[in-house]
């Protein structure tokens, strides 16, 4: 296994995380671990899709912090707005990544002049995030595709701060709402059975007066499920929003099972969301969620060039 | 890497003990076919259990004191202390539902390894209030009081305020189990025996409260609290409804196969009974067993085996409706999906 160290004070192999990633050969022959020592790393980080099997380990979310401040309303050198997907602090594009013990923070702030500001953009398959804090406001975590597992992570934001089309399990995570808003905005494709699944999480907020929805469908078939999750008073009794489109109520897949706490009172939940039965809940095993039975037989009509 | 066949079996230290396990254990296990034999079997095993647990101490006056009284929206939380045995005082929280006009059930709620009673009643390790659950125990004391039952949450010996000074100095998440277990064993006592006695004394406390119905006592525990719940419920007939979370298994596949705390070991117990035999003693009282399918320290395969054994006792006594499980996708933790309603329903 190749080991690389990074620290701000020059006593390691590199001073920035991106330099360390750039030093790794594409399609590494062995697993690479990058140790990111205590410090604040002001940088945008890209792990390209041809560098899989990396492990990046910090010294703890309070000690190792990667941060940047791009935001959707920012104007670039061509006088164009950044838009959402150029804002991330951290792009995790390769498969089989393990990211541990650090914070990724978008420090742009919030408001109409800021807009979306992503902390983590993940599109790699089979990625693990363990004891990672994701700090931001609008659109903190974007899972574009693939499967990711978040264990004992802290994710904060206010509007749609967990969004995208990936299949993601959040296990024992704290999901913290800073203000009024929506926790999830899944765009799960119709053919995928699972989108965002929360197991044994805590939903907390900065103020008991906040009004927060569990989610709204960014695309019609968005899927989200909260299981054995503790919800504070900020969760609105109706639970879910249709994103101003009643048609979404027919397709969105929003589920709950055995949640607890003052925000988990199910009597007033919107009728188009569902409480799982005990036997249905047993389908929500990590193995099941992450098993994709996907065959692909390309069907191309031969071109007759004559 | 070595294969099992590379090492001569007779050189392996556990080989003869595995043989012993397979041939001559459970001399008092649940192997009866006639329901009329059940009580005699149970009483004999109970007597033996108390003996191998190290016996119980002299019964002394409880001398309960309320140290603190705090009111919340739905309940009152009292900090209390009572005498369990000579030289043993037990600090506990008692949660009492507000607005009760008749006698209500009382429940003993037992924490596992962690920072003791605080985790069960919505307090951080340093005593600060918190509403958010922390760790693997899910504020279960609060969940129960919110369902209209009185709850007593003692510090189990070795945890919380009941630790040696050097362990307290080393932080909140330490315990004194190891030294306690070694002292106890050399003196013919067991940690489990001491913990079971404290549960019996906690029930004494509950049944002295004017608002508690003495015929409706339950016990719930997670992990090592589940262990104490198992033994206490097998021994103390006052316990009427039981929830064992993240514990029920076989001794062989859990504490003998995975690294576990020293407080789990009861010398000689396998000569008489496997863990499921003790659970059989609880029949026909309502018993709910929680097991996470990813609980690596109490593996689900062995939890399934244990459950099938326990089922035999409930079947024999025609009480199959009083036995249930909560199998969940999760690790070593309390689920609560069925547990709180189970207590409410049967108490």
TrEMBL record, chain A:
UniProt entry keywords in alphabetical sequence: Aspartyl esterase, Hydrolase
User: Does the keyword section mention Hydrolase?
Assistant: yes
Q: Name one GO molecular function term.
A: pectinesterase activity
A Pfam family the protein falls into: Pectinesterase
* EC number assigned by the record: 3.1.1.11
Listed Gene3D superfamilies: Single-stranded right-handed beta-helix, Pectin lyase-like
Question: Where do the Pectinesterase catalytic domain residues begin and end?
Answer: 4-289
Q: Which family does it belong to?
A: Belongs to the pectinesterase family.
**PANTHER family referenced in this protein's UniProt entry, alphabetically:** ACYL-COA THIOESTER HYDROLASE YBHC-RELATED, PECTINESTERASE 53-RELATED
Q: What protein is this chain from?
A: Pectinesterase
Its ancestry begins with: Bacteria, Bacillati, Bacillota, Clostridia, Thermoanaerobacterales
